[in-house]
């Protein structure tokens, strides 16, 4: 490893040597930890392949399609990482990761399958008595050190994230002008792409869980919230200000990336829907305008005005922080929708898709939930004087 000195003068040589020494010590520590953890990782992959994949294949306890759905590409991953381990133990880091990155597609396949893998495994443990006994027996072996199969299957996903951090540390302590730096940087870029895919998949899975949760809260099947490209953003109680100055009533709102859903609670004594909500109206956000009518006085909360092409909605809250959060969430969702729509139009103004599709908007901040049972106090500022146009 060589490093390029930049300072000059009699003291420069001393400082350069110190910096070079720090780089080399950090590089050595990182490399040592990488090799040690790679050995442990390969040992764990071997456990899965030896005591589960190979024996299950021989015994026929699981159908081939079910077995492949659970274990996916883990056998080929084990083969790839055995080769990587040999290179790392020889100190051939650049060659090892160059070869490893040529087979990253096996990890991509595994990453994309991991959620389904866990579900199928859970079903087999519950319904397949022979497999349940087999699994328990294998996990009781001393080699497993009390690990369950559920603990071991996510390891390839976790390892990709670890490779990213190791490669970052190695490149940061390598001379930027060296061939080694170029090779490690290339590997870091490839691994980072898979790491990002893992994060995107996790977010997408969490989003689908939120959409299903909200769908189960709604009475009947008339209101559909599960759809492609839709992201859950937040939910909460707000009072709607009706026309003619009548009293503002609390409604439960669910905000998604492209629509705002207004609901009302079902009667508490209803035998089946007492804990659910009835959908009242779905407001598309694409052409919405969000404004604060007032909200500077903490004791009074605030009022939001949402203007749609064919409707206007006034939302009130006595909680200043809550109304500010809603304003930010709604403004962000509307802004992203309109921004993406503008970009699409600029790319191809003649494309029919520009006017028929709603671009997906991912949440930019953590989704907010509240206790649905806590209906806000209906007392407070009434809707008198506020007119819905």
Automatic annotation (TrEMBL):
<feature type="domain" description="PH">
    <location>
        <begin position="231"/>
        <end position="335"/>
    </location>
</feature>
<feature type="region of interest" description="Disordered">
    <location>
        <begin position="1"/>
        <end position="22"/>
    </location>
</feature>
<dbReference type="InterPro" id="IPR042987">
    <property type="entry name" value="ARHGEF39"/>
</dbReference>
<dbReference type="InterPro" id="IPR000219">
    <property type="entry name" value="DH_dom"/>
</dbReference>
<dbReference type="InterPro" id="IPR001849">
    <property type="entry name" value="PH_domain"/>
</dbReference>
<protein>
    <recommendedName>
        <fullName>Rho guanine nucleotide exchange factor 39</fullName>
    </recommendedName>
</protein>
<dbReference type="InterPro" id="IPR035899">
    <property type="entry name" value="DBL_dom_sf"/>
</dbReference>
<dbReference type="InterPro" id="IPR011993">
    <property type="entry name" value="PH-like_dom_sf"/>
</dbReference>
<feature type="domain" description="DH">
    <location>
        <begin position="26"/>
        <end position="201"/>
    </location>
</feature>
<dbReference type="Pfam" id="PF00621">
    <property type="entry name" value="RhoGEF"/>
</dbReference>
């Amino acid at each position: 490893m060589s490093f390029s000195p930049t300072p000059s003068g009699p003291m420069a040589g001393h400082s350069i040597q110190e910096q070079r020494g720090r780089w080399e010590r950090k590089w050595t520590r990182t490399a040592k930890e990488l090799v040690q953890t790679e050995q442990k990782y390969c040992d764990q992959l071997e456990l899965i392949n030896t005591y589960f994949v190979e024996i299950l294949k021989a015994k026929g306890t699981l159908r081939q399609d079910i077995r492949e759905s659970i274990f996916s590409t883990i056998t080929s991953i084990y083969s790839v990482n055995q080769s990587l381990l040999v290179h790392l133990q020889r100190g051939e880091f650049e060659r090892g990761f160059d070869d490893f990155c040529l087979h990253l597609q096996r990890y991509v396949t595994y990453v994309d399958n991991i959620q389904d893998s866990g579900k199928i495994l859970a079903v087999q443990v519950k319904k397949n008595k022979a497999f349940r006994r087999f699994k328990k027996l294998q996990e009781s072996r001393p080699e497993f050190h009390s690990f369950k199969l559920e603990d071991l299957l996510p390891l390839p996903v976790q390892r990709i994230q670890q490779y990213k951090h190791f490669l970052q540390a190695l490149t940061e302590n390598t001379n930027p002008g060296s061939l080694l730096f170029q090779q490690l940087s290339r590997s870091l870029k490839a691994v980072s792409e898979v790491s990002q895919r893992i994060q995107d998949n996790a977010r997408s899975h969490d989003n689908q869980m939120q959409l299903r949760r909200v769908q189960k809260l709604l009475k009947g099947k008339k209101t559909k919230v599960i759809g492609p490209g839709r992201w859950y953003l937040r939910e909460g109680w707000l009072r709607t200000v009706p026309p003619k100055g009548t009293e503002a009533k609390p409604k439960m709102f669910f905000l998604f990336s492209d629509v705002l859903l207004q609901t009302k609670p079902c009667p508490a004594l209803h035998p089946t829907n007492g804990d659910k909500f009835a959908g009242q109206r779905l407001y598309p956000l694409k052409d919405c305008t969000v404004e604060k009518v007032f909200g500077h006085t903490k004791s009074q909360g605030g009022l939001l005005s949402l203007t749609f092409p064919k409707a206007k909605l006034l939302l009130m809250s006595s909680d200043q922080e809550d109304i500010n959060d809603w304003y930010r969430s709604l403004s962000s969702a509307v802004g992203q929708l309109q921004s993406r729509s503008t970009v699409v139009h600029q790319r191809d103004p003649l494309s029919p898709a520009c006017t028929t599709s709603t671009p997906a908007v991912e949440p930019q901040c953590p989704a907010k939930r509240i206790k649905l049972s806590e209906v806000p106090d209906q007392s407070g500022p009434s809707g008198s004087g506020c007119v819905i146009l």
